[in-house]
Design goal:
Elements (H helix, E strand, L loop, with lengths): L11 E7 L6 H7 L6 E7 L5 H6 L6 E6 L4 H15 L4 E4 L11 H9 L5 E5 L4 H5 L3 H18 L12 E4 H6 L11 H11 L4 E5 L13 H26 L4 H30 L5 H27 L7
Helix pairs in contact: 6-9, 8-9, 10-11
Length: about 325
Amino acid sequence: MKKVHDDMAHRLAVVIPAYKVYHYIGDVIQAIPADVSEIIVVDDGCPEYSGKAAEYEADHRVSVIYNYKNKGVGGAVIEGYKRALELNCTVVVKMDGDGQMDPAYLKDLIAPIIDCSADYAKGNRFFNFRALKAMPFIRLFGNSALSFVLKLTSGYWNLSDPTNGYTAISSQTLRRLDFDKISAGYFFESDMLINLNIINAVAADVDIPAKYGDENSSLNIPKTLISFPSKLLSGLLRRILLKYFLYDFNMASVYMLLGIPMFLFGVSLGLYEWVQSSLTGLIRSPGTIMLAALPIIVSFQMLLQAINIDILSVPKRRC
């Protein structure tokens, strides 16, 4: 079997969260390259006992963690990360157990970490147009919209396909993360990016086409659509507070400090005057209109400048 990398200084682990993948996980394990030192399967309270299917594989690299209560995909992966650190692995790949993530691309995925150009690497299905055509429309549309929102929320304006779960991370970066602050559910991949940006970790996209077979997703779409907006807003506010007001204070901080209250003042005054005009039938004077419009215009320019500074502040390798 083709080797992933010849440098034995790197001890590679693959973490596989397993939930209702009993019929797929065996094939996934068999396809993992020989240079992977540890295969950590996390049975996340699976009713099919997917962990047992992993144990049936005659592969000494496989170890199984059983979460007797379902913790969600993020909770399962974090358990795998902790085990990988205990085993002194230097690079940890997260791969799903349903066969959608092709182990043939594992070498490409870990390359930015091996050559020290990134601390975290993730797959991007949007680079390959031919593979992109095979992606279900609902996933394509959802990922396109979410990509822009996550650029703003996470601060990684250079990344796309934020929900891609085929990832690799260095052990040094894992040790810097506070696992208790990372979402345990389906917001996990997005929340990882937010937390990585807070610690100024360098992240990279890797061209990896999508694979879709006959597997059934356990994703609850309505529940996810309801919970994501609040989680995104919470993540954005936390990142801004920590990066621009606690850990640092720069011109982006000034623009936000002045721009946000000014914007809210202009909008509030404008709405108040509009309601009063509707109730009384009296047209507001140009001066009153400008009193509401000018703060909105000026604050909008300030917030655009803050966003521009945030774009220029995407973590980059300094060496």
